[in-house]
Amino acid sequence: MKGAARTFGAITITNALPAGIGCAAGIALPVDVEVTLRPGRSGKGPRITGVDGSGSPVVDESVRAGLARYHPGPGVVASVSVRSEIPAARGLKSSSAVSTALILAVARASGVEPPPLEVARLAADVGRRAGISATGALDDALAGLEPGFVVTDNRQDAVLRRASIDPTWGVLLYIPPEAHPPSPRLVGAFSHERGAAERAGQAALNGDWTKAMRINTELVERTMGYSYRSIRERLERRGAIASGVSGLGPTLAVIAPTARLPQLAELLPKDGAEHRRVPFHRSSPTGGERP
Question: What are the Cα distances from residue 44, in Å, to 37, 49, 119, 176, 210?
Fold first, then answer.
């Protein structure tokens, strides 16, 4: 039995770490996975094999979570292939995208087509159990499955708001080479920013994405030590709608009309960081287009 899935990375509007309210939007950086299930030795637990990026804790935990929900029983061998275009540990939701893609592929290999929110909640639980996300990052997982802005309460694994994205908007990414640490290590550092995070979350709930991104970025810059303010101000003077640190960084994400992205890219530092222009993703998990 075989199953395949494609899910996507995302950018942060508000980070859920300080106050539990997260907001993210999916971008067209895909993860593609294939899973083959076959019978193994009776009486043994599931065994996971694979190539092309498989074998990490998040891969193993995601496959096991998918098998427990959609293909329970002993003696299953899962062969896994993972191909990702998302830079790892740069704030672009690579772990959430890998997890959701694997869970969805296991479900499809088992003849099941689960709803996106179910898959996202399973991935959030994987993130917490694997120690890669303090909150589970439901917003990140769901944003990689559904188009548009997604606002969630990650303390309750609940969706608070969904909103469409202007079809003329795109994203510019400034991606330094340094990786960020796992979020569980930073819970204490972010605990002092709860008030600012609550204001950012309320702005997201109100649909004021620019304000939400600005407040969130200021608190992340204070906590993580990033110095992007002058870059952000320069970008916004030249037509960016909003800009800010994605996740825990170090990526800086810029939202702007797609036609302006090439000019805005010229304003980014020429320091060896990677620059990418990407659209927001607009595909459902089953491939249908949504507004």
Answer: 14, 15, 26, 44, 52
